[in-house]
Amino acid sequence: MADYREKARERVKKCCKVCPVCNGKACAGQIPGMGGIGSGMSFQNNLTALAAYRILPRYLHEANDPDTGADFWGQKLSLPVLAAPIGNVIANVGSDMPTERYTELLIKGCREAGTIATFGDTPQFEPVARNFAKVGDNGAMVIPFFKPWAPDDLVSRLDMAAEHGCAACGVDVDAAGFPIFRRVSRSYGVRPGRDIAKLVEMTHARGMKFIIKGIMAVADARIAVDCGVDSLIVSNHGGRSIDCTPGTAEVLPAIADAVGDKTLIMADGGVRTGVDVLRMLALGARLTLICRPVAIALHGDEENGVELYFGDLQRQLVEAMRLTGCANLASISREILCRA
Questions:
Q1: Which residue from 233, 279, 236, 288 is spatially nearest to 259, judged by alpha carbons?
Q2: Distance (Å, rounded) from C-alpha 177 to C-alpha 190?
Q3: pTM of the model
Q4: How many CB atoms lie within 10 A of CB 289?
Q5: How far apart are CA 13 and CA 95, in angstroms?
Q6: What is the pLDDT of residues 190-216, one digit of tens each?
Q7: 267-322 residue pLDDT tens
C-alpha cells in the first residue's frame, strides 16, 4: 500500500498531495480539485466530527471472528462500504485518466472486493453514456448518481440506468451549489419535495431503487422519506458544496433516530479506516461510502489498488469489531462509543 500511495502521489500531484491523513488541510479551497470549498472547514469537520467519538473496547465476550458481511437489497457485500462517485476525474483528481477509464477500473476493483461501485454525473450526456458503456453486465453492482436536474431532464439518464440493469440510482442534491452546472441549465439546483417524489416514481417505474444523497438536516430527511426514497445518504458532498457545515457524524445520529426505521441510512464524510467505519455504523448508518482514498488507491495501482484498499479496510473493521464485542454488523450500537 505504501508503494501504490507513492505512485499515486506522482500521478495526481496537480490536485492532491496524498497526505498521510486525508484531512483537507493541505488542499483547502482547491475546487476543482480534491479540497473542500472556501476555508475547507466542511471537509475538515468531517474528520473532527468522527474523531470526537471514542471507542469503548470490550474483551469479555465470544465475538472473536466477526462477520463484516452486509446486505444491500439482496446483494451480499463483503463489507459495509461502497466506493463513492466522482463526476470528472481529470478535473477533480488531477490525473490524465479519462473518467470512463476510472469507472471501468473502479467497477472491476469493487467487484473483486465484493462491494458496490458508483459513478457521477456531468453537464453533458455524452460522458455519462461513456461511463454506462463500462458497466457491462455488472449493473446490479453499480449505482449511477445524477446531479439535481429537474425530473424531466433526467429521463434519458434513468432510461440508460435501467437498460444497463442497475438495481438503484441516486441524485446528489448536495451538489446544488455547483455553479458550472447552474450555468448549463436553469433547471439545475435545489429541488422541492414534489420533484423528489416524481423522481422516486420515475425510478420505481423503471424497476430501480432511488437513493437521495446529501441529507444533513432532520427536516430534509423527513421530507425525503415522505417522498418515498428507498435510501438516503447523510453527506455534505465531501465538504465541497457549502463552507462551514458540520461534519456528517455530528448530524447522523439525529437523522438515524428520526427516520432510520423508515429507510436505509448510509453516510460518508471523513471515513478513512475500519475504526471510522465502525463509528459511522454505531452512529446509525447501515452502510458507508468512501471517495478520496479509493481514488488514490486506484491511481496507485490500476489493477489491484481498489481491492487492496478495501481488503485492508475490511481487516481493520474485523479487528475493531473483535475488540468491541461486535459479532456482526447488526450488533454494532452506540454503546461502543463515548464522546471526547
A1: 233
A2: 8
A3: 0.97
A4: 24
A5: 8
A6: 999 999 999 999 999 999 999 999 999
A7: 999 999 999 999 999 999 999 999 999 999 999 999 999 999 999 999 999 999 99
Where do the domains of the chain lie, and which CATH numbers do they carry?
A: 2-339 (3.20.20.70)
Region of residue 12 (phi > 0: left; psi between -120 and 50: alpha; otherwise: beta): alpha
How far is the C-alpha of 121 from the C-alpha of 127, rounded, in Å? 8
Which cell numbers hold the place of 296?
A: 488514490
Which of 203, 232, 264, 224 lies closest to 71, judged by CA? Answer: 264
Which set of grid coordinates corresponds to residue 98?
479519462
User: Exposed, middle or buried, 64 (CB in 10 Å: 0-12/13-18/19+)?
Assistant: exposed
